[in-house]
Every structure is written in C-alpha cells, then in structure tokens.
Amino acid sequence: MNSYRQDDWAASPSYPSTVNEPYLMGTGVVTAEDTGTRPLSPPHSHADPMLAWCYRGTVWVHLQDARWRLAPGQGVWIPAHTPHTAHHEADSTGCYTYIPDSALITPIDGITRVLVPRAVQEMLLHLGINDMPTDLRVRIQSVLIEMLQQPLPEAASEWGEVPMPADERVAALVQTVLADPGDPRSAIELFLAHGLHERTVLRIF
Q1: Is the pTM of this model over 0.90?
Q2: Could you read off the pLDDT of 40-57 as tens digits, one per residue?
Q3: Any idea which fold 6-161 has?
Q4: What's the pLDDT score for residue 58?
Q5: Residue ranges covered by each domain of the chain
Q6: Which band of pLDDT confidence, cut at 50, 70 and 90, is reported for residue 197?
Q7: Which Gene3D superfamilies match (predicted)?
C-alpha cells in the first residue's frame, strides 16, 4: 500500500501545530468512509509529536523505511517533524492525537510503541465531541498524557514494526506481497514477474 518513492519522502511537507493554549492536545478521527483503504495523504510531518492509534479494525502507519500494524488499543508515538502516512483496512477507524512537546512528561525522540487502554480511547474521543469548562478539559488532558506515557508492559513486546527495505529495486515486489499475502505464486515466480533475479533479491534482504 505504501507506493511512495524516496523523492516523495524527501519532499514531504511539515504542518504547523493545531493545538492552541491553554489546551494540551487534539485528536483527529479517520474512518474507512473517509478514505477507503488508500493512504490518507502523501508523506508529511507535523510540528507536534503525534500518537497514531487504532480504535477499530487494522491501521497501518508508514514511515520511510518501515511500517507499523496497529490493532485496537495499539499505538505508536511519532516524533515531531518525522515524515509518515497511514492507511486503514476496510471498516477500520484510526485516531491521531497531537501533543506539543511542552505538554509531554518526557520527550518523544523516537518511534515508540504504546498501549491505549479502552477507557483512555473513549475519553480521548469524548473530549473531541463534548463541551466542558476549559480548566476541566485541561486537567483531563493532563491525566491522559500521563497515562499514555506509561512504560509499555513486557507482554506487549510481540507486536510492532514491519521493516521495509529501502532499495527501490524491490519496492514493487514488496508492495505486491503486502497487498496480497495470499498470492499463490512462488517466490521465484514473483521475482520474475518483477524482472528481478533471485540473487539480487537475497542480497537486498
């Protein structure tokens, strides 16, 4: 699904913060009806760190050299100014929470896995659709940030990054396999279909 080339990543725009004081965060919700299964947008970055998390179905977060598969309750922190995009599988809902560096307990310096408990998910969504006094909203946001920056339990170590080879010679092959993991063709048949020699592919991987 990630069909962007290195030039696309290098040219990715950076968007300014959308979080205004005194607030500490903002969350966007994207459903399958909004985009289908295509990538949400070309690669881009944000001035604030972003937590991408899955509410329903399966959400894929793409970086230049890797991608992350998120199931409900799973998320990844993406540092500010880190190019990325995402796509959602059918009937999936992904959420994107932006938090300025100044509001974080500890800086987000690298891609970091995080569990988003169901209660936290619902409160993040509740904040987005319900009015409340500003001081109450800010207090709730502060507590949610603390919960989202808790250490990841060891039990969650089995999910995470799917490495993506950076060599563009195999980019089309990789996308074919990811788009249809059940393709009945053998590895050799797939290599030949993309004009690749087996030794070339093995060297790259």
Answers
A1: no
A2: 788 999 999 999 999 999
A3: Jelly Rolls (2.60.120)
A4: 92
A5: 6-161, 165-204
A6: confident
A7: Jelly Rolls
